[in-house]
## 1
Amino acid sequence: MTQRQPHVIPGSFILKGMIFANILIYGTSLLFSGAQAIITWDPMTAFAPSYPALMAMGAAGTDAVKLPVLDIWWTWIAANWLHASLIHLLFNMVALWQIASLVTMAYGTYRMFTIYTLSGLMGFSLSYLAGIPTTVGASAGICGLIGAAWYFGRSGQSQAADLVYRQTRGWIVVLIIVGFVMPNINNWGHGGGLIGGIIAGWMTGHQLRRRSGRMDQILCMTLMLLTFLILCTSIIIGCVLMFT
């Protein structure tokens, strides 16, 4: 008797949904910013949401908005979907598309989303513990995907895994260089996300060790529901704080 495999949502569907959600939340933050949004020809700051709008919608850090019951931990999820400018969004979405596609092949659809979410949580929680006042962006989760890809390449024992290992080593070197060269880079978030991705990759396992199972599906769907509720909270709280 063959074991029935759980229904698998196409990886491209979830990935496109993640990118759509990032764009939607960015657009909402611009809308909430109103006249305070930064409209400039400087590509690094063009179409930047206002600081109050980002804080109201769940920017993470020691200055984060505390809510009853949720305290500040809700921002450790919300901040993973907020961006500080148009170029910030575009850069992260290109990276997310490329790296998440690779991780989906290595871990499967469900584990990819789980790794992204847990890595973001670790990156932003570590940023809080390090005393970073305000931080946003998908890069913590993306660094987590890089960490998971590195773990796959390190432990996969195959030619494909070896290629991934060499590629991800290059990405990690670039992350380190960018972190030291460019201003306003949250290295705590990047480092925490990277470590979180390695740990999540080890805990969930990859396709060369086992196929995705029912527990992977349940965990992913639970995190998707939690993320959806947090993003709805982000929009509601943002609307209340910015327009009342």
## 2
Amino acid sequence: MRLLRAGLSLVLAAAIWLSSLHLWFARAPDAVAAPLAAHQLALWTTATARTHELATLRRANPEWDLMARMFAVLAFANLALREPTQRATYLATIDRIVDATLEDVERAGMHQFLLPYAHRAPFRDAAGRSLFVDGELAVMLAARQLVEPSAARRETTRTWIERVVGQLERGPVLLGESYPDEVWIFCNTVALAAVRMHDTSLGTPEAHAGLMQRWVASARAHVVDRATGLLAAKTTLDGVVQEGPEGST
């Protein structure tokens, strides 16, 4: 009995010790965020460093270049709201990222942010656009307007929002293509987030409430994995599931 108690005590002590190990290595969120933000600020201030880093991302996966820009903009938008004294700096960086991305798309087209198989077939939607590219650009523009509306960006933002709304509305089950006849649900939810942020920035948060409600209802009917209740990762434009939630980003 004494040995049993000793063994149980040892197991209990080990469990407590192992479960608390992370406390020795945990870092406060600000301690992690500050150097990351400083790096991104420097990156978008120094053209040479930015060109090298973005080229490295594109060589690995061109999608990562656009996604890195989107998440940087969202991070700076959060920081601008949290740190009003630094808002001008963060907004200036957001503007540089947005302007560079708009210029890149205008100059080289959407395919510079897409994998080569985007050329395998035409998009089924008549507009022939990628919701991945349009949605992430729309999010960047909408986030900027949500932090501090810019009259100079109002029409550009509206244009990109109308593009993603059009893609969603034209889809047979309210889904937009990221690649030809290939729908990534992540890209669709990003597009919806852009629409909601834009509407909120205009003081009309319910402007597209009907679209949001119809999209959720359609998603539940067509792209929810019945076993888990989670959204599928990838479908066709008609909503035929190609990858389950285990592939979701």
## 3
Amino acid sequence: MLIEPKSLNKILTALDKQIRIHGGCHISLVVCGGSALAALGLVNRTTKDVDVLGKAEETDNGIKICKIKSFPKWLEEAAKTVARDYFLPENWLNLGPASQLETGLPKDFENRLVKKKYGEYLTVFFIS
């Protein structure tokens, strides 16, 4: 099944709940691609996945984006449960664009992120 803009919030809220159930802790992800555009209402089209660029860390100096080599086990399990419940592809939550951090991001990139909380365990910073 494809992810429609109107169902994206439900899916990410479900992921927040599953993170808790699977014994995870709070995580902030930086998301790009079609799901970011849909979440911000910039496009009204479906997407097959949620592309994670990295992990966001909020500091006194702003947001720092850190590379993730792999998701924590609890996040993988939470994502698998959401995939099952919403009939999504197994890799609907993926680190496909993570290598972009090695080549560098545009100046002031972090200042253009839009923060959305999906509960106690999941915060997403969407690229605007």
## 4
Amino acid sequence: MSDIEQATDSLDWLNPLFLGAYAENDTLLESILVEFLRDHCYWRRNVHPEDPPLIPVLAADRPEYRQFVGRMKTELHGLSARLKNSAPFYNPRYIGHMASDLLLPGLIAQLVTTLYNPNHVTDEAAPVTLALELEVGLQLAAMFGFNTDPRHTPCAWGHVTSGGTLANDESLWYLRAVRYWPLAAREACREAGFDPGMIAGLADDFVSLDGWTLANLSVDRTVLLRREL
């Protein structure tokens, strides 16, 4: 067996992971999507099977129905045509950006989940995917070596964002909150007439510290201060 054949055999496990540069796994992708689309439709029909259909059976025969479907297909064909000018991230010959083909499990999971339209604004609006998001956050923390056991501190936590830009913005938002928290706590103590004294290992009474000192406390010191207050 040649070196090329041996190298190819050693990478066989990659074959089902991607749609492929030539869409070699198109049948696999199509069959799975159809299977879970049908599963989703069955779920909708069985939430309240006693309810009559809101869309009439003969709606598809009406002119306005066909006109809308025609416009929708026209727009989708136009979108599909324009998308053909996209960068071919899926092809191993393309190395212009730090991107590659999508993993089939992730791609399918995203498309299937979109049908359920979860909204992570509250756990009531996303009872399943919000829990999965937090689970993935813990998995990522564990992968990078952070402690995820709540019995030990500090314990990592996190969640999934839509991308690196939002993650960077969010990290700055948290840093701002940490920097301003001691200042806000000092003003609240002053207004309430409460003097906690020298806490959290600070060199002076908390309410007498100047803004520069409080704004430059370390993250660990701020967390300790919050706990002791």
